[in-house]
Write a structure and sequence with these properties.
- The N and C termini lie far apart (37 Å).
- The chain is mainly alpha-helical and 184 residues long.
- It has one domain.
C-alpha cells in the first residue's frame, strides 16, 4: 500500500501535501484505520521533518473534523440514550483542565485508538478549540516516535532492525496472550 501511495504522491507533485492531509482526515473520520501508512509515505516522500509536519497537520485537521462530525452525530443519537462506558462517562463529565489533560494523556498513549478518544471527547463538554489544542499536543510526541521509527526502518540501519524486531516481538506477544485468554 505504501508503494502505491508513494507512486501516486510522485505523480501529484506539490499537491501531494493536500492529498496526504485529506487522507489523514478520512482515516480520522473512519476512526478505525491506523494512519501509520500515511506517515510512512510522508517520511519517504517529503523527508523526515517535512513529512512529520505534514503528518501532524493531517492528524490535527483529521481530529478536528472528526470531533465536529462525531459531536453532531452523537448529540442526535445520545439525546435519549444513557451512556454505559466508564471512559465515555468520565470524559463527558470532565471540563477545563481535567478534560484538557485527559485528552493529551489519551493521545500520547499509543494503544488507545484515536477514534475512541475523539468519540469520548465529542460527547463531553469540551469545546472544539480546547479539544484541538489538547489533541494536537498529545499526538505530537506519538507522531515523532512513529516517524523516527519509520525513518529508521526505511534507512534499515541497526536502529531500524531493533525497532522492527521489537515491534515483531510485541506482535507475537499480543497474539500469544490473546490465544491464552481465548482458551480460558
Amino acid at each position: 500500500m505504501e508503494a502505491s501511495l508513494l507512486e501516486w504522491f510522485n505523480t501529484l507533485g506539490v499537491y501531494a501535501i493536500i492529498v496526504s492531509i485529506l487522507l489523514n482526515i478520512i482515516i480520522s473520520v473512519l476512526g478505525v484505520l491506523p494512519s501509520v501508512a500515511i506517515t510512512a509515505v510522508n517520511i519517504a516522500f517529503f523527508g523526515f521533518q517535512e513529512g512529520l509536519a505534514v503528518s501532524i497537520a493531517g492528524e490535527a485537521l483529521g481530529a478536528i473534523v472528526s470531533f465536529y462530525l462525531y459531536r453532531r452525530g452523537m448529540n442526535k443519537f445520545l439525546r435519549h440514550k444513557e451512556i454505559n462506558s466508564r471512559l465515555l462517562k468520565r470524559m463527558q463529565q470532565s471540563r477545563g483542565g481535567e478534560a484538557f489533560f485527559l485528552i493529551i494523556a489519551l493521545r500520547i498513549f499509543p494503544f488507545i485508538p484515536s477514534g475512541l478518544v475523539t468519540l469520548a471527547a465529542a460527547v463531553s463538554k469540551v469545546g472544539i478549540i480546547q479539544y484541538s489544542v489538547a489533541s494536537t499536543l498529545g499526538k505530537m510526541p506519538a507522531l515523532v516516535i512513529e516517524a523516527y521509527s519509520i525513518q529508521q526502518v526505511l534507512v534499515w540501519n541497526w536502529k531500524g532492525k531493533i525497532i522492527l524486531s521489537g515491534f515483531l516481538l510485541f506482535l507475537i506477544w499480543l497474539i500469544l496472550t490473546d490465544r491464552k485468554s481465548a482458551k480460558k
